[in-house]
From TrEMBL:
Protein name stated in the entry: Aldehyde dehydrogenase
Any single Pfam family the record assigns to this protein: Aldedh
UniProt-recorded Gene Ontology molecular function terms: oxidoreductase activity
Signal peptide segment: none
InterPro entries xref list: Ald_DH/histidinol_DH (IPR016161), Ald_DH_N (IPR016162), Aldehyde_DH_dom (IPR015590)
Keyword Oxidoreductase: yes
Assigned keywords, A-Z: Oxidoreductase
Positions of the Aldehyde dehydrogenase domain: 33-264
Entry superkingdom: Bacteria
Length: 296
C-alpha cells in the first residue's frame, strides 16, 4: 500500500454538525428557557436536526413580544404591510431549494411536488399582500342614518392571535399566518409538531424580510402543552385552532378561550391548494363605527 493510500485510510471521517433549531420570538432566535429539545427525523427514520421544545414560559414571552409589536404593526399603512408580505414572498422564493429539500426529507414529498408546494406558498403570500389595501374597502361601509351625520364602519385588527398551525408544514403554515398579519394583527404560532423544520426556516426568512420583530413569533414543541396556555392567556385576543387534531384538546382550548371572550376559529382540514377567499382575514377583524356631523 502506498503512503498516500495509508494516509487516506487512516484519516477519520468528518463529524456531522448536528443542528438544533431555535424558537423565533421578538425577531430573535432564543433557545427554550427549559433547555429542552426533541429529535426530528426524516421519513426514513434518519436524524435531521433537533428542534427546541418550547415551554409555557416561552409562550408567555412570545405573547409579550406580539403585544409589544402590535401598536406599530397595526398602525402601519396597509400598503406598507403589503410591501412587507411581498418581500417575504421574494425571500422565500430565493431559498426555494432549501425548502424543497426540507419538504422532501421531512414530508416525504417528491422533488416535483415539493417544488410545487413552495411555489404555491410564494403565490399565497403575494395573493394576501395584494389584499392589504383592499380589505378595508370590501369590509367597510358608509351607513345610511336618519340625521345630519356621516356614519362610517371600518375594519380594525383584533390584536394578538394565537395560531395552531396545520400539519402542512409550509403552504398550510403560510395560509394561516398571512391573513392574520396582513390585516394588522400580530401572532404567536405553534408550529407543526411533526414537521417543525420548514417553520423555523420560514422564521429565518421573516427575520430578513423587513418584518418588525414580534409581529410573527414561532414556537416548536408539543401542541398539547402550548395550546391550552395560549388559549387561557388574558393578553391573547383570538385563537385559530386549525391545526388541533385532538377533539378533546380543541374543546379544552375553547373553554379556556371563553374566559376572556376570545374570537375562536375552530379546527378544520381545508385543501390548502385551493385559492382562498377573504374568510381568514375577516375572522380576526373588528368593526369600528364612527359618527361625524355633516358640514354645512
Amino acid at each position: 500500500m502506498s503512503k498516500a493510500s495509508r494516509s487516506d485510510a487512516e484519516r477519520p471521517s468528518r463529524l456531522a454538525v448536528r443542528k438544533t433549531y431555535k424558537l423565533f420570538i421578538g425577531g430573535a432566535f432564543p433557545r427554550s428557557e427549559s433547555g429542552r429539545s426533541y429529535v426530528v427525523s426524516s421519513t426514513k427514520g434518519d436524524f435531521l436536526a433537533n428542534a427546541s421544545r418550547a415551554s409555557r414560559k416561552d409562550a408567555r414571552d412570545a405573547v409579550s413580544a406580539a403585544r409589544k409589536a402590535f401598536p406599530g404593526w397595526s398602525g402601519a399603512t396597509p400598503y406598507n404591510r403589503g410591501q412587507i408580505l411581498y418581500r417575504i414572498a421574494e425571500m422565500l422564493e430565493g431559498r426555494r431549494a432549501q425548502f424543497v429539500a426540507e419538504l422532501v426529507e421531512v414530508g416525504g414529498l417528491s422533488a416535483k411536488k415539493a417544488g410545487e408546494t413552495v411555489d404555491a406558498a410564494v403565490d399565497r403570500l403575494v395573493w394576501y399582500a395584494g389584499w392589504s389595501d383592499k380589505i378595508g374597502a370590501v369590509r367597510g361601509a358608509a351607513n345610511p342614518v336618519a340625521g345630519p351625520y356621516f356614519n362610517l364602519s371600518t375594519p380594525e385588527p383584533t390584536g394578538v392571535v394565537a395560531v395552531v398551525a396545520p400539519e402542512d408544514p409550509l403552504l398550510g403554515l403560510v395560509s394561516v399566518v398571512a391573513p392574520v398579519v396582513v390585516t394588522g394583527n400580530t401572532c404567536v404560532v405553534v408550529a407543526s409538531e411533526r414537521f417543525p423544520l420548514p417553520s423555523i426556516t420560514l422564521a429565518e426568512v421573516l427575520a430578513t424580510s423587513d418584518l418588525p420583530g414580534g409581529v410573527v413569533n414561532i414556537l416548536t414543541g408539543r401542541t398539547a402543552e402550548l395550546a391550552p396556555g395560549l388559549a387561557a392567556h388574558m393578553d391573547v385576543n383570538a385563537l385559530d385552532l386549525t391545526g388541533v387534531g385532538d377533539p378533546e384538546l380543541a374543546r379544552r382550548c375553547e373553554e379556556e378561550a371563553a374566559e376572556n371572550l376570545k374570537r375562536v376559529l375552530r379546527p378544520s382540514t381545508p385543501d390548502w391548494t385551493v385559492e382562498p377567499d377573504i374568510t381568514r382575514m375577516t375572522a380576526f377583524l373588528e368593526t369600528k363605527t364612527v359618527w361625524h356631523p355633516v358640514g354645512i
